Amino acid sequence: MAKSKTKKVNTATHEDNSPGIFQKLIFWFIIPLLFVVAILLVVATFTNFNVFEKAAELTNLKDTTEETTAGNDTEQYNEKIVGLEAEVKEKEAEIEKLQGDLEKAKAENQEGLIVQEQLQYEIDKLQRDQTEAKKEYEDILKSFEQMSAKSAAPILVEMSDDEAVKILANMTPDVLSEILAKMSPADAARYTELLSK
After folding, report:
1. Planar angle of CA 11, 17, 19, nearest 5 degrees
2. Is the pTM of this model over 0.70?
3. What angle is formed at CA 96 by the lines to CA 93 and CA 102, rounded to 5 degrees?
4. CA dist 177 to 59, 122, 153, 163, 173, Å?
5. Cβ neighbours of residue 156 under 8 Å, at least 6 residues apart?
6. Which helix (H) or strand (E) holds 94?
7. What whole-number distance in Å separates Cα of residue 52 and Cα of residue 171?
8. Which DSSP letter does residue 184 get?
9. Which residues contact residue 30 at a Cβ distance below 8 angstroms, ignoring those fewer than 6 apart?
10. Residue 77: HSE in the Cβ half-sphere, 13 Å Cα cutoff
11. Which residues are CB-neighbours of 147 under 8 A, at least 6 positions away?
């Protein structure tokens, strides 16, 4: 009997030491499966592969609001791009217009400089002519002052009133009185009247 008791005790301890079905299932299937899943997730992370998005695509559980939002975002970006491209084209057209205006202004400025040079040449020419005319006038005036009153009076009477008065107005009073004395009384009165105006 003692042997059977020991046998019973050995069998009981042996049964207590052997793993159960649930433990075998955990050791042989669940732990290796979790290990493989963990390795696959690490590999997917390094390759930038989103397992959860792929799973949602495969199971068609993807949220439709995300698709709509993504579509709306894309449309908004496209609209912004189109708007910015139009703005760029508008700015380019404005730049071209301003460059055209600048070229036109440069051309007008160049024409203005040419006209200014021509006018300056005309002014210089007129000033030279005026200087020459003034010199000639002074020469004529000196000639009349050097002439005798008897010779100068008939010449002045034959000239136009404006020219005669201009010459008489610039003579010294002594010479003027001598020339007027040699004129006829009617001519002397007329020139005196014109000189007094």
Report:
1. 120
2. no
3. 145
4. 132, 41, 11, 18, 6
5. 144, 164, 167, 168, 179, 183, 191
6. helix 64-146
7. 119
8. -
9. none
10. 6
11. 155
191, 168 contact by CB (below 8 A)? yes
Q: What are the tens digits of pLDDT across the range 24-36?
A: 878 888 888 888 8
Question: CA dihedral defined by 110, 113, 117, 118, rounded to 10 degrees?
Answer: 70
Burial call 12-31: b when 16+ CB within 10 Å, e when fewer: eeeeeeeeeeeeeeeeeeee
For the chain, the first-to-last Cα distance in angstroms comes to 178
98 — pLDDT class (breaks 50, 70, 90)? very high
Instruction: Tell me 90's DSSP state.
Output: H
The label of the residue with tokens 């695509």 reads 57
CB-based contact 177:151 (threshold 8 Å): no
Would you give the DSSP letter of residue 19? -
Q: Which tokens sit at 137?
A: 């006038």
